[in-house]
Amino acid sequence: MSKIADAEANATSLDGLVNDNGLIPTLRNGPKPSYQYLVDGWNTEIAAAILEMNKSRGFRVVGTFADGFTYELFNDVGIDADGNSWIYVGAGAPNKVVPAGTSPSVSSGYQQVTYGTASSVFSNDGNNLQYHVDDIDGFTGALLDEAEIVPNGQPDTAASSQRLEALKIISWGVNRKNITLSDVVSDSSLKVGQRFRISDRADATFDVVLASGVTPNGHDIVQCTGVPSLALALDVGLFSSRNIKAFGASATATPAFNVSATQRALNVMPLVYILDGEYDLGGAILNIPADTQIWGNGKVFGGFETSGDNTQVHGITIELQPDSNGGNIPLGIEVTNASNHTADRVKFVTCGWRVSNERFDTSNDYELTNCKFSGDFTGLADFAVTIALGNAVASKITGNTFKQDGIYRLLKGTATGFGAGQAITDSWSKELIFSNNLIKGSIRNGGLQVIDIYSGLEKLVIDSNISTIKGGDQFLLAKNGSTSGDSNVAKKLVLSNNVVESEAVNTCIDLQGAFGQSFAGDPQNAIINGNIISTKNATRAFSIRGFNRVSMGVNDIVSDDAVANYIAIDIRASQNVNVSGGILTSGIISINESTVDPQVETVAITGVSILKQSGRGIDITGLKNANVITINSCIMDSAVFDAVRSVNSVVGKLIITGNANAGTIGFNQSGSTITKLVNVNNSWN
């Protein structure tokens, strides 16, 4: 029975421990506190601790002065006989052993604190919160005073902060209204060291400096009037200072001021921006110093010149007005005796681009890329040209658009000056690439070539251009040598993939080599491939003279039927000639000699179609001592009466095979001496 009674007693105790609130009798070790009894006790203790913490506001009461104690932390507090709280801030703080019976005083290093005030809460550095509050208030007051902001009494927020506004004003000069140059210049409260971002100077930053240490110029150094001893100096190290507007240029400024502002920017900055607007320079020509770049999308009514190396102009529009009384095309950019110049994406309005170098060094590289030229030059002087190159070692003119009327020449390249009657001398214009250009417009009455390469180049490439030009004497003249011993003449000439519509009245394309005076071991080569040439009024489509090797492949020539005695291809005084493929709507192929060496040695004409011609088809008359000539698989339609004509020629071996002629005579060899003739498998009517 005792075990059953014990079990019942334990169950009763367990129920009481869980559900009752008090001390519950148990069989062993006396009464035990129930769960609820413990919880209520904990709540009471926690509430008392929270109350004490709230009372102390972060302080820790460590003892009374009557009993003695030890300070260990900055927030330790001792209580005196009157209940006042004291912290220790004297020597050795926060550590201090307080003997029993001590009377705290300020002179002894103690400081009385009152709970609930800023002065009674201390940070880790030993200063109370009131110290930090006073520090922040003092800084805020000084900050707002310097920025001349009246406190609004409201706390700073993320959306509205007077402190942030003051910092902006002091560090950048940004006010809540736009600050203009006149606002700052006339300000009588200026101080040295202030900085202002000026709204009507492209938001460029100016520093306030002593006027005695600078020379005011009205652009990057501006004299102050509010405080005459001070001046504003442009901070040229910032990006905004690269804009010519930072120097005072504007759409409303006088031409004279724009000229001086822009020139000052070019003199001071290695990179200058001309942006967003038009700037009247009154037609003045500004100087670009060496190692200077101009970028932008703005427009200037003026031009640029440079004699400094390593200059660039990108993206701007340059417009100049030609002299109403006639004269040369004004030059938007002129480079004189300088190397390494680039003009890219520049719009030239009624003006041109010229390079003239007499330094005769070997590092002169010039690029004219993706530019646009426009204007009507009717009435200007005869020798005005849009692009002129003189002694340019390596030039690249590519991707440009020319839409001009009344020009005399589009491009002129020479080894000397640009006037009439130049003497051909050793040329330093070594290499020229003219490619991917679009040319439209007209040559005025009396005008000459679209492209005139007057003196020799070692490499000349004219590739993938499209040209539609009315009038003129010739489309292309590449006079790359002379008969009088010029030693610097074209080594390689490439004319490929061009589409030309020409109304030239003379020869459309005239290519002149050195007449056999080649460089040692490196012959004169002319490669003409894949061109489509349409002529009207011209007597010849191609005239090619004075090369060691001439190779023509798949060139189509469309000509005006009304021109009598039209010659589609005229090759003279060239040693080795190869003509293959292509269609000639009319005209003849003429291979002959001149009075100047070299004489024609070998000729190969293959797969050419001549569709309409009332006279000869292929003419090899007058050859002096040709070694081998082959004419194969050519078609001559319509009224051609001499498919192949060789009159009074001297030929070692002549092979004519697989040709067809719709005319009356196949092969005319009147008066010729031919050592070996092969004339087979031809269809002659």
Description:
The protein has 685 residues and is mainly β. Among the domains are: 1-56, no CATH class; 534-685. Helices cover 13% and strands 39% of the residues. The protein contains 6 helices and 57 strands. It has a 24-stranded parallel β-sheet that branches. Strand 1 (23-24) and strand 2 form a beta hairpin. Helix 3 packs across helix 4. Mean pLDDT is 82; it is low at 416-427 and 481-488.
How do the helices and strands line up, and which of them pair or pack?
Elements: H1 2-19, E1 23-24, E2 32-33, H2 35-56, E3 60-64, E4 69-71, E5 76-79, E6 85-88, E7 96-98, E8 110-113, H3 129-146, H4 162-172, H5 181-185, E9 195-198, E10 204-210, E11 221-223, E12 230-234, H6 255-268, E13 271-274, E14 278-287, E15 293-296, E16 299-306, E17 311-314, E18 317-319, E19 331-336, E20 341-344, E21 347-349, E22 352-356, E23 365-369, E24 372-376, E25 385-390, E26 394-398, E27 401-407, E28 409-414, E29 431-435, E30 438-443, E31 449-453, E32 459-463, E33 466-470, E34 474-479, E35 492-496, E36 499-502, E37 507-512, E38 525-529, E39 532-535, E40 540-545, E41 549-553, E42 556-558, E43 567-572, E44 576-580, E45 583-584, E46 588-592, E47 602-606, E48 609-610, E49 616-619, E50 626-632, E51 635-636, E52 642-645, E53 650-657, E54 660-661, E55 665-668, E56 673-680, E57 683-684
Parallel strand pairs: 3-5, 13-15, 14-16, 15-17, 16-18, 16-19, 17-20, 18-21, 19-22, 20-23, 21-24, 22-25, 23-26, 24-27, 25-28, 26-29, 27-30, 28-31, 29-32, 30-33, 31-34, 32-35, 33-36, 34-37, 35-38, 36-39, 37-40, 38-41, 39-42, 40-43, 41-44, 43-46, 44-47, 45-48, 46-49, 47-50, 48-51, 49-52, 50-53, 51-54, ...
Antiparallel strand pairs: 1-2, 4-7, 5-6, 6-8, 9-10, 10-12, 11-12
Helix pairs in contact: 3-4
